[in-house]
Design a protein that fits this description.
This protein is α+β, with helices and mostly antiparallel strands and about 200 residues long. It has five helices and twelve strands. The termini are far apart.
Length: about 200
């Protein structure tokens, strides 16, 4: 096993990690909230998200939860539950993930098995400091139909088509919701922060 220290305070990359070691770490890191694992066929990235990451993750999560509550849509929210499959030798923890269209398929399952059960319908990714592993490629393999990706500068919506992600302007889970709608929502937060800083100088 070799470790590669990335020029970033929030992550480390490890090579030649077995699936069994990854699973052992997943179970142990459940007791260490705030540490995130991405596994890609022997390559393991460990990240400790910075404060801006957590802020935007919570904002986007609240948006989904408020929408579904107002629309009276049943969802199963699994937060950052580990999404992995041994047959693919790949796994990650989304920032937020939701069963929406497939909620009925998993609502009563205590433990979801992605080798048998459908993947989450929507995953949210906040990428303030870029991952060393292509996480979107893992989502493709897992079959997640929709991913929202935010990097503090821009938001992108991805729709899974023919085993690759295509940029899209409308949500699959919420067809009335556009990319511009979510960007306006996030920009309101930024404007409020600027106003707050000016008032409290």
């Amino acid at each position: 096993m070799t470790a590669t220290l990335i020029q970033s305070p929030d992550r480390v990359l490890l090579n030649n990690i077995s699936w069994q070691t990854y699973q052992f770490l997943v179970k142990n890191f459940e007791q260490q909230p705030g540490m995130w694992l991405t596994y890609d066929r022997g390559l393991l990235e460990i990240r400790i998200p910075l404060d801006p990451h957590e802020t935007y993750k919570k904002l986007l999560g609240r948006l989904v939860e408020v929408l579904t509550e107002e629309l009276e849509v049943e969802i199963r929210s699994l937060g950052s539950r580990t999404c992995d499959r041994e047959d693919l030798a790949r796994g990650l923890e989304p920032d937020q993930c939701y069963y929406i269209q497939n909620e009925q398929a998993v609502w009563d399952k205590e433990q979801i098995d992605l080798s048998k059960d459908p993947p989450p319908d929507l995953a949210i990714e906040v990428d303030i400091s870029s991952s060393s592993i292509n996480r979107l490629d893992i989502y493709v393999d897992l079959g997640v139909p929709e991913v929202w990706h935010y990097d503090e500068q821009a938001l992108k919506m991805y729709r899974l088509e023919n085993k690759q992600y295509q940029n899209c302007s409308h949500s699959i889970a919420f067809p009335f919701l556009t990319l511009s709608d979510i960007e306006r929502f996030l920009n309101l937060k930024k404007r409020f922060e600027r106003y707050y800083m000016q008032v409290h100088k």
